[in-house]
Design goal:
alpha/beta; Rossmann fold; 7-stranded parallel sheet; 12 helices; globular
């Protein structure tokens, strides 16, 4: 009897074809509601999602045959992993697929902030000529602090090197030190003291860590007070890593010169106070939204589903 796979979010057609060719029965319903999913999931052996679908405890408990949940993308914060583990359901994702896309957006955001490109574009379209007011800064020689030196952090470092930036990295894993050394990056360490050192010394800070209980508001009012005056900060990882209220106050007061935010504590946000600040670049969680990353994510996750059932 064929194993049945429900695809609840948009994936590339090639991934669907791959799974069908491997002998799996695949049903695509990329607009399925929570209640519809709960009603239909008992008939499926695997569930494939991206970020839209929330795989909550009630969905998992309703999946009587469910053996695998596959997330096409990096994070797992839209899946109740503990509930899945309790039921013996395997959870997989594809973090290797979108590293370049996120790294490229990060560098694009840094350039936009430092050269005020987003503000220049908006002012021109409003009929203004703010040439003198839009004096920017070069990236060359600036200190870039990378918090989280996994795949994405390393790709950011590779690209920042081309801009002749001085790069430091912090990570909770000591094994990241070797990767930093290979890339000519200064690894500040794994401790709280090391993180504070990076915050104090960096001109630009970018976060590339997962959303975990220990990383929620890892940049709060205390950490912001340590950051060098007039520094820039970017969060293109996960909403909730930065305390938005504290960040807003620091941006409004000028303590922090600018910020780029691709993710928010609530998505989509019902209210974006940052929108009123000219020194903030906001994007709607598009870090991995490239044609190449979508294809790679879909293909990688399709192969993981196939391999799981081959086992």
């Amino acid at each position: 009897m064929k194993k049945r796979v429900l695809i609840a979010d948009d994936v590339h057609p090639d991934a669907v074809t791959m799974m069908k060719d491997a002998g799996l029965e695949v049903v695509v319903n990329d607009k399925i509601s929570h209640e519809e999913l709960k009603a239909q999931i008992p008939e499926f052996d695997a569930l494939v999602v991206r970020s839209r679908t929330k795989v909550s405890r009630d969905i998992i408990e309703a999946g009587k045959k469910l053996a695998l949940i596959a997330r096409s993308g990096v994070g797992l914060d839209n899946i109740d992993v503990k509930a899945a583990e309790k039921r013996g359901i395997e959870v997989v994702n594809s973090p290797e697929a979108s590293s370049i896309s996120v790294a490229e957006l990060t560098l694009g955001a840094i350039i936009s902030l430092m050269r005020k490109i987003h503000t220049a574009d908006k002012s021109m379209k409003e009929g203004k000529w703010l040439k003198k007011e839009l004096e920017g800064q070069e990236l060359s020689g600036k200190k870039l602090g990378i918090i989280g030196f996994g795949r994405i952090g390393q790709e950011v470092a590779r690209r920042a090197t081309a801009f002749q930036m001085r790069i430091s990295a912090y990570d909770v894993l000591e094994e990241r030190r070797k990767e930093a050394e290979k890339l000519g990056v200064k690894f500040v360490g794994t401790s709280r003291v090391a993180l504070e050192k990076l915050l104090r010394e960096s001109d630009i800070i970018t976060l590339h860590v997962p959303y975990l209980p220990e990383t929620v508001h890892m940049i709060g009012s205390k950490e912001i007070s340590l950051i060098k005056d007039k520094a820039y900060i970017l969060n293109l990882a996960r909403g909730g890593l930065i305390d938005e209220k504290s960040l807003y106050e620091a941006l409004k007061s000028g303590k922090i010169a600018g910020a780029a935010l691709d993710c928010f504590e609530q998505e989509p946000p019902s209210n974006i106070p940052f929108a009123e600040l000219p020194n903030v670049l906001c994007t709607p969680h598009i870090g991995s939204s490239t044609q190449e990353a979508l294809i790679a994510n879909s293909i990688i996750i399709a192969q993981k589903v196939i391999d799981f059932f081959k086992k």
